[in-house]
Give the backbone structure.
Amino acid sequence: MNEAPPPPPPPPHPRRNSWSGLTQPRAEAEQVLRVLWTTQDAAERRAANEWLTGLQGSGEAWTVAIALVASGSEPDFKQFGATLLCNKLRGGGGGGLPSDQAAGLRSELLQQLRVVPSGRLQASLCRAAAGLVDAGAPSADGVLGRLLADPDFRALRMDAMLELLTAVPDEGAFISVAEVQEIQELLLELLGHALGGAAFPARLPAAAAPTPGAADYCQAALRCASCWAAQACSEGVSLSMVAEERCFEGLLACLGGVHGPEPQLLAAELCVAALANESCAALETAAEGISMTDLPPAAQLQLLAALATALAPLQASAAAAADDAGGDGDEDGEDGQRAARCAMIRLGATLLAKGSAVLAPGADAPPAALSLLSTLVACCGHPAQAYAESALGENDEWVAALLRVCGGWGAVLAAQLHASLTQALSRRPNPYPSGSLR
């Protein structure tokens, strides 16, 4: 009985910079990947892995990666090419390419993005292109001006434009403070179109304008605006600026959970970042609290009301969990919903801390502010650790800020805060293991 012939070995491991002699580099790479992904032979897998490692360290990897992305015979091969590019570009500096080659690679990536559908491959290509946005000859118009003048960028769909811009801060490109402010303001204008039906920004290609209110468009615009709002900028977008834009009503709807947990999370993160740039002033005495000088009182009340309504269920769940020693009060909260609620708690705590004057004695505190405060107090002792940590983690300054104006709360709410804080402390794990203090 004849034995089956052994499988062919993988191609030999090339020495670094040996790709220039290959006539079919994409086909060679695909052959090696098939061996790595399908064979069970340890020696063959090791040889294939070494071969690919040598490729990644070679100068020819750029050409092979682009060839895989453009012409890979299977989706996994295309994805490998994009991942290879991201790895070589990691850390910024255009992957060490000369500026003209880096600019050429960016152009090639943008052209590929025009034909790639939304998904994992698009995300990887956007990451790679984001690391090259500052490549090429210096431009007086900066990174944004360079992109907006690039016909390959202007030919992209809006979802790809926004995903690329969202990736820029994490991919090592140099962006000046002035450019951060410029991008923040453009994205705030775009949010006005996405959430409020305002005019589409004139600087962006009109052909790329999606339908206002489209769910995917709103979410992508929120994600990009939230990402850039979090970038350090001395003159960055503030909450009072947001309140003046057409997007504000749409943001309130997102905070209310109308569009689901993901837009709620992104809207809360955007508002928290914008609050960091909000001007505040302490009043004459500590008991009078702090006031946000530029945020219109009506806008503050709208935010308080949206947060109070959205977070009200947490107060009930905290009370229910207190009656059930084994529960955490969030049995129905999925990961996305829990993350959104945590962001909302952080926003509510920051909003009350920076605007504590609304709760000062004699201020005739609005019901929404008292309702939100009551929920935050309950969250301090919430058995779901994520909620307690969101209320008392990095944002516990709100407790001190509001204790200074607690004369306006009433005895019942002040007693509830004391009990909730005591309960929260009793539930926290002991930071000092037994026997560590001797």
